[in-house]
TrEMBL record:
GO terms for biological process: amino acid transport. This is Polar amino acid transport system substrate-binding protein. PANTHER family: ABC TRANSPORTER GLUTAMINE-BINDING PROTEIN GLNH, AMINO ACID ABC TRANSPORTER PERMEASE. CDD domains: PBP2_GluB. It comes from Nocardia amikacinitolerans.
Length: 331
């Protein structure tokens, strides 16, 4: 008897259809028959909700909207227990900080294999906010978010903050607010070792995995319009399709790619920085008290050594520890 729940069955069907469409749509890319040289095989299904980006889909507009320096944020007024404001008070009344993040992002927010707790750079930054706001890093509730759902979760206030490798952009600032920059990432490329791929220029005619609803998707489409793009819901999905050779590369922030490379020694980061990706904590628009509060916590982390300790704990594979990013304040 088939006991698979309907949603699973539907997911598999959708994945199978997407697989057919994507693999069939590769005629413009490398010849899938290349694989035949390594023997007969059955193509594994793509992850649920995987979707090819059709090459005739309109490219994202060439110019991003202007908003001055998008990384400028509100000056902290202190992050101690004395800080007050409508949003701060509401979180204290609830007694828990609701944090939206990815629960499968190695290095940033993922399950500790032994304890099962969500750990990583983003998870720990969120815990520090809870520590200052509520007196304990454990008064926190993590809510799993796909990249494409970050702005919506803040607009609908299903979370208090988003701590998910979120690049600060003028486009996003129309919908949500951001803290000061807490990590500077760079957009790069991940490929299989010895693939011959050395950067974004080599992705012309190749298949590239990118997550939908990200700055990475727009960037790859603009910088390498000759790539065949597959979008999936999470970066972990991208690692799977790379491992299954359903794509030739993954392209996003080096910090995220380092987490994928750490899970597969046959992959490597290649090429120079394609763009700077400054990360901020996402906060609902107009929650100025919370923005100032979070900026106070980030100020503490930069000066008391916590930021450096967290970087060394989680992100050492990115190279030597840099100085914490200097904040820019708009008032
Ligand atoms: N930094 C990119 C963005 O904010 C990708 C990060 C992610 O998908 O989590 O869109």
């Amino acid at each position: 008897m088939n006991t698979a729940p309907m949603s699973t069955a539907r997911g598999l069907l959708a994945a199978a259809l997407a697989a057919t469409a994507f693999l069939g749509g590769c005629a413009a890319g490398p010849d899938p028959a290349d694989h035949a040289t390594i023997g007969t095989y059955t193509e594994p299904p793509l992850p649920a909700n995987a979707s090819p980006v059709h090459t005739d889909a309109p490219l994202p507009s060439g110019t991003e909207p202007e908003c001055g320096d998008p990384t400028a944020s509100l000056r902290p007024t202190g992050s101690g227990r004395a800080a007050r404001g409508p949003n701060i008070d509401a979180i204290r009344a609830r007694g828990r900080l609701l944090v939206g993040l990815d629960t499968g992002s190695n290095l940033f927010s993922f399950r500790d294999p032994v304890s099962g707790a969500i750990v990583g750079f983003d998870a720990d930054i969120a815990r520090e906010i809870a520590r200052d706001l509520l007196g304990s890093p454990d008064l926190i509730e993590f809510r799993s978010l796909a990249s494409a759902d970050r702005e919506k979760a803040l607009q609908e206030r299903t979370v208090d903050v988003v701590a998910k490798t979120m690049t600060i952009t003028c486009e996003r600032r129309k919908k949500v607010a951001f803290s000061t920059v807490y990590l500077r990432a760079d957009h790069r490329v991940l490929a299989m070792k010895n693939s011959g791929i050395t950067g974004i220029t080599d992705l012309a005619g190749k298949r590239v995995c990118v997550v939908s609803g990200t700055t990475s998707l727009d960037r790859v489409r603009r910088e390498q319009p000759a790539a065949t793009i597959l979008t999936v819901p999470t970066w972990a999905d991208c690692l799977v399709v790379l491992q299954q050779r359903q794509v030739d590369a993954v392209s996003t922030d080096d910090a995220i790619l380092a987490g994928l490379a750490g899970q597969d020694p046959y992959t490597e980061l290649v090429g120079d920085s394609i763009s700077a990706e400054p990360y901020g904590i996402g906060i609902p628009k107009d929650a100025d008290d919370l923005v100032r509060f979070v900026n106070g916590t980030l100020e503490r982390l930069r000066t008391d050594g916590t930021w450096t300790r967290l970087y060394q704990q989680w992100l050492a594979s990115l190279g030597p520890t840099p100085d914490p990013p200097a904040p820019t304040y708009e008032d």
